[in-house]
Description:
- The protein is an all-alpha fold.
- It has a single domain, classed as Glycerol uptake facilitator protein.
- The chain contains eleven helices and no strands.
- It is globular, with a radius of gyration of 23 Å.
- It starts with a helix and ends in an 18-residue tail after the last helix.
- The relative contact order is 0.13.
- Mean pLDDT is about 80; it is low at about 270-283.
- InterPro entries: Aquaporin-like, MIP, MIP/Aquaporin.
- Belongs to the MIP/aquaporin (TC 1.A.8) family.
- It comes from Balaenoptera musculus.
Amino acid sequence: xxxxxxxxxxxxxxKMVTPPAVTRMKAVLQKEMVREFLAEFLSTFVMxxxxxxxxxxxxxxxxxxxYLGVNLGFGFGVTxxxxxxxxxxxxxxxxxxxxxxxALGRMSWKKFPVYVLGQFLGSFLAAATIYCLFYTxxxxxxxxxxxxxxxxxxxxxxxxxxxxHMTLWRGxxxxxxxxxxxxxxxxxxxxxxxxxxIGILVVIIGASMGMNSGYAIxxxxxxxxxFFTSLLAGAHRSSAPRTVVGASGGPPLGAYLGAIIxxxxxxxxxxxxxxxxxxxxxx
Length: 283
């Protein structure tokens, strides 16, 4: 093909008309709420695939996984989610955080169902993905009988079926520390390191209090996978209502209380021009 032919072909391609369906799709995807929905969906999916995959290794892997691996899976899953959607939706990946932001007036309540729907769909799809990836191992481990409790229980790969008395306080610590990490008027994480610091926070919360209730600090993490397991034919049907209420009600209340405590105790006492640490050396 000569250079003249290439130029003619390039000119013809540049004059191609974009199909109306593609144009409409681009217009829809540029809408703010649509972009935020997709950001929450994808970031939650990534977080949950890493986290649930780590749990599957711990439960099914016979020494190939550990509880530390679960903490790291969820922690760095959150880090990847924040990098992916932080500048679009804020990368909540947690209905409790979305509820708190709406309750404090930091975002419109109109966005609440959009964010939560994106989170729930991403979490549900992640549970289905992990089930497909580990299907053979799950069947071998359980003997084909999927149960919630017992020596071969597999429901705990997807959701938390433990005591719910700590879910409120863990949500409290989650929001309290998140505000400190992101508060520009205080001593926030350095620009570009917030995602890593937030991931480390998730690791610490799991490592310090995971014995009580696993990672039941996030309704978006717990409820959709729990619903997914209930859809499996004849499997995982003994989900206790008390654990559902604890996983869905405790974290939002705890997160809201944590935000209020931070704003009252710390936010209201921050000076407009705080003293720089190095100034103490000049005294």
